Amino acid sequence: MCGTPSKVPGLPDGEKLLRLPVRRGPTSVTIVVVAAAVVERQGRFLVTRRPTGTHLAGLWEFPGGKCESEESLESCLARELREELAVDAVIHEPMLATTHDYADHRVELHFFRCSISTEPSAALGQEIRWVSGEELWRLEFPPADASLIQLLAPPRSS
Questions:
Q1: pLDDT of amino acid 59
Q2: Is there a contact between 79 and 91 (Cβ–Cβ < 8 Å)?
Q3: Boundaries of every domain in the chain
Q4: Which terminus of the chain is more exposed, N or C, with fewer CB under 10 A?
């Protein structure tokens, strides 16, 4: 893995976020637009693990994916959830939009509250978990997800 865990101010002792290389240099940058789902059921959130051989492999994420050109965020998210988890989702309100610069591209990430009526299955062989807000802090997520995790499960002061 190219990043190393490091202490982040404001997080409880022992809690770490993965630090990845940040893009430096020319202003021309590829922007990747991503839509992701926040599915909560009985106080637990649906997360998936990025498969081997992909960008940020092994990290946990909220399910979703890259938008195709001319595709709305909501259509993108519904398509990605069908392809990755074999579920039909109801896309509710947007929760958060954020950007993060990686060494070779910028991610524009849009999180939506979603609901699903069936249990997800790993259509691409990825690991799937339902986790509590507290468990979100123990899993390794891409840095772009940090502000959402803080929104869903604010760190407790010690």
A1: 93
A2: no
A3: 24-152
A4: C
Alpha-carbon span 152 to 95, nearest angstrom: 10
DSSP-derived letter for residue 116 is E
For residue 152, report the phi and psi dihedrals to the nearest 5 degrees.
Answer: -75, -35
Bridge partners, residue 61, by sequence = 48
Give residue 104's pLDDT.
85
Tally the residues of the chain.
158
Which has the closest alpha carbon to 158: 15, 58, 6?
Answer: 15
- Whole-number pLDDT of residue 54: 76
- 3-state class (DSSP) for residue 79: helix
Q: Which pLDDT score is estimated for 41?
A: 95
Separation of CA 50 from chain center: 10
Give me the pLDDT at residue 14, please.
56
Architecture per CATH, domain 24-152, reads as Alpha-Beta Complex (3.90)
| Tokens coding 128 | 């799937």
Residues of the chain falling short of pLDDT 50: 1-4, 6, 8
Q: Which of 108, 141, 99 is nearest to 1 (CA)?
A: 141
